[in-house]
Amino acid sequence: MNFREKLFRYKKIYDLEGSEDLFLAAMRESVEHHEYHCTFYKELIQNIGYTSDQLKKIEDIASIPAIPVDFFKTHEIRSIEKEEIKIHATSSGTMGQKSQIFIDKSTLKLGTKMIIKAMLYHKFVSIIPTNYLILGYEPKAGNEMGNVKVLTGMTRLAPAKEKVFAIRSIGDAYQIDYFGVMSALKRYARQRLPVRIMGFPSYLYMMLTAMKEMNMPPLKLSKRSIVFTGGGWKKYKDMAIQKEALYALVEEMLGIPSENCRDFYSAVEHSVAYPECRHHRMHVPIWSRVLIRDVNTLEPLGFNQAGFLNFISPLVSSMPLSSVLMGDMAVLRDGSQCGCGITTPYFEILGRAGTRVSKTCASSASELLGGQNGTHI
Hints:
Elements: H1 3-9, H2 20-37, H3 39-47, E1 67-68, E2 75-76, E3 85-90, E4 100-104, H4 105-121, E5 130-137, H5 146-154, E6 160-170, E7 173-176, H6 178-191, E8 195-199, H7 201-213, E9 226-230, H8 243-254, E10 261-267, E11 270-275, E12 282-283, E13 289-293, E14 307-312, E15 323-333, E16 346-352, H9 356-368, E17 374-375
Parallel strand pairs: 1-15, 2-17, 5-6, 5-8, 8-9, 9-10
Antiparallel strand pairs: 3-4, 6-7, 10-11, 12-16, 13-14, 14-15, 15-16
């Protein structure tokens, strides 16, 4: 068993200090694995003179070359052969191009173990039959969007009595099924079974405001119901409201307690999920470390300072995603101040970053590829 597997077997999912040596060893393995199996990554780290030997203490993870997510929108980079691909997922592509992400068997196995542990810890796993309202796309052949796969996978956390999708497949196109959504909510209210509503917060907000505009009486869904949101507001950011206000609206119109509303941060380019704690904060688990980098120098910042969001994790063996620089601005907070019982740091997303992150970090990678778009394995 390698260090990566041992890390994902570690029982205390928020014990950063106790798992520190294991995480560091797993990151050394990750860098060495991608150096050996991915020509692009080998050339990248050799070009800057980086080796895994530089990882001697936990602070050294900041030196691992961070690849910006935009790079994966124009290049297909793999550390495995095509026949080893188990899942092909894409980002939502709201800004045009989509990241192409490939997952192998070992990553899928460890990722599944990670999700189950996290969901058990937060008490999101249930044996009670549950009705689902999925505020996203109905799965169909050819749709490789990562959020479709994630939302569909989350219906396995409690046995599904019924699943209703807000965006239905009509031939070759998708259409929002307003009638189907409202009908499902009324039906679920009569059945009194737990309901799980999942999807983008923007879709949830539009559904709730539509209920108010239609003078639809507030519903009383089961108090055991849960709302899972994730993915941000994307192209609807002009209507974005604070999550506290959104959760209050959920409680008003659906009768679901605000403490049962949980947001997730996840990205197709970074397979670690960050569910909110009961105080609605996204704490860092043992499977990753989160850095905030200065917008000008890319140097790591301390608590309460805004910068680019950088995720570091050994989870993915199929692509060199060991250190990924996201397109989000964020701030890191001291988790001991949260009060939920989890003391690891938590991060807050401030909004989307500009193009500086890509221009700063992708230049060496682009030079290695001769400035051309395409596959480099």
